């Protein structure tokens, strides 16, 4: 568990730092709001592909090798983005972001590796522990946008290559930690619940909660830095602060979300997630203040956390361990595909209808989560 928590700190740092820089780099290269959403789109698509591959390899190769390989791919991706910036090639930047998606998949799949270390009843708490650890690195990442950019410029490099150079280093250390320090959990038959094939709980409600939560969060948050720059605040420090507040909301309440799952059930927690996200999006659409937008992004992150923990619990509840790997991969692929749709749509929506249109569309999508959550069994 300590290795997994430390890996989440470093992986979360690299994920947040490079993710925050991606949209800014594309916008700087093209001066286009539509292009600014492309790095996040290909990143989440790469994350979905990596999760699908990982779910197939986790059983024959083990979590250790699978997660370490994903971190290695993310390291290579950050280096490719730097090369793309140096060559002024948006195609290379996007290719590197696709590989960086493997790092996102690693950070997210670690919660399931943590759940394997404990008993069935303690799974939500174990997942929450590594998600909370992610907060430390994920909050630090965006706040280093300005310092890492300045360091890159001092070496004669484009400023926004700095975040990707530091991201490459962090992912490389994460890879080493996972490969050398993680041991695959045993799979005692006594812990496998007796569920007959054909009687497994449906994956649809949990998958819907995970996918919609990620779609709304990615779409509305991706364009927040661009929205702030349009209003005249171009300081990377302020943008990084708002992103950090959002990330605190995404990961810090994990223990609270796990407690709610145990107290009111995963379905009830998912209903609450949809309500919180819808309210946050509506507030983001209504405010013109950067500070109020920061509060809305924090609330959006909290709603996403509620959806992530509850949706994960719904997805893997009462299924045998050998089935869980496939369910986990299905959930991550669903999150990735939904987020890719959100990332692809957010740029054109802002270009044609402004950020208000994007935020209101997010509110409508989030309002669907409670109805979809209650459409299945109540884990």
- The Rg value, from CA coordinates, equals 19 Å
**How many beta-strand elements?**
0
Q: Tally the helices: what do you get?
A: 15
The count of domains is 1
Order of helices and strands: HHHHHHHHHHHHHHH
Please report the first level of CATH classification, the CATH class: Mainly Alpha
The CATH architecture name reads Up-down Bundle
Mean pLDDT figure: 85
Instruction: Give the % helix.
Output: over 70%
CATH topology: Growth Hormone, Chain: A
Indicate the structural class: mainly alpha
Alpha-carbon distance between the two ends: 25 Å
At the fourth level of CATH, the homologous superfamily is MFS general substrate transporter like domains
Q: Quaternary state, please?
A: single chain
Strand residues, percent: under 5%
Unreliably modeled segments: 187-197
**Main beta-sheet strand count, sense and barrel state:** none
Shape: globular
Protein name: Tetracycline resistance protein
GO molecular function: transmembrane transporter activity
Keywords: Membrane, Transmembrane, Transmembrane helix
Pfam families: MFS_1 (PF07690)
């Amino acid at each position: 568990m300590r290795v997994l928590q430390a890996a989440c700190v470093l992986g979360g740092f690299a994920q947040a730092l490079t993710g925050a820089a991606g949209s800014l780099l594309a916008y700087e290269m093209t001066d286009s709001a539509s292009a600014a959403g492309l790095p996040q789109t290909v990143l989440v698509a790469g994350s979905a592909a990596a999760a699908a591959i990982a779910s197939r390899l986790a059983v024959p190769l083990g979590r250790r090798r699978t997660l370490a390989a994903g971190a290695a791919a993310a390291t290579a991706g950050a280096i490719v983005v730097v090369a793309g910036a140096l060559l002024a090639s948006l195609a290379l930047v996007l290719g590197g972001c696709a590989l960086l998606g493997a790092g996102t998949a690693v950070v997210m799949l670690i919660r399931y590796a943590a759940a394997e270390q404990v008993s069935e009843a303690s799974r939500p708490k174990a997942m929450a522990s590594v998600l909370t650890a992610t907060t430390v690195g994920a909050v630090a990442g965006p706040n280093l946008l300005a310092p890492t950019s300045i360091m890159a410029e001092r070496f004669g490099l484009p400023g926004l290559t700095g975040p990707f150079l530091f991201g490459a280093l962090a992912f490389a250390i994460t890879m080493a930690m996972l490969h050398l320090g993680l041991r695959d959990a045993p799979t005692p038959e006594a812990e496998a619940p007796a569920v007959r094939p054909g009687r497994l709980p449906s994956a649809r409600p949990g998958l819907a909660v995970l996918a919609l939560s990620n779609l709304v969060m990615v779409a509305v948050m991706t364009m927040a830095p661009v929205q702030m720059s349009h209003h005249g605040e171009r300081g990377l420090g302020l943008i990084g602060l708002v992103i950090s507040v959002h990330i605190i909301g995404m990961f810090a309440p994990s223990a609270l979300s796990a407690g709610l799952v145990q107290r009111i059930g995963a379905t009830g927690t998912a209903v609450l997630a949809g309500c919180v996200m819808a309210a946050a999006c509506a507030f983001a659409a209504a405010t013109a203040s950067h500070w109020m937008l920061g509060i809305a992004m924090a609330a959006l992150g909290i709603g996403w956390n509620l959806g992530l923990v509850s949706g994960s619990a719904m997805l893997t509840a009462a299924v045998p361990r050998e089935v869980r790997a496939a369910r986990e991969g299905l959930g991550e692929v669903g999150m990735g595909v939904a987020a890719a749709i959100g990332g692809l749509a957010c740029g054109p929506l802002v270009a044609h209808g402004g950020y208000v249109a994007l935020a209101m569309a997010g509110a409508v999508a989030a309002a669907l989560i409670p109805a979809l959550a209650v459409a299945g069994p109540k884990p």
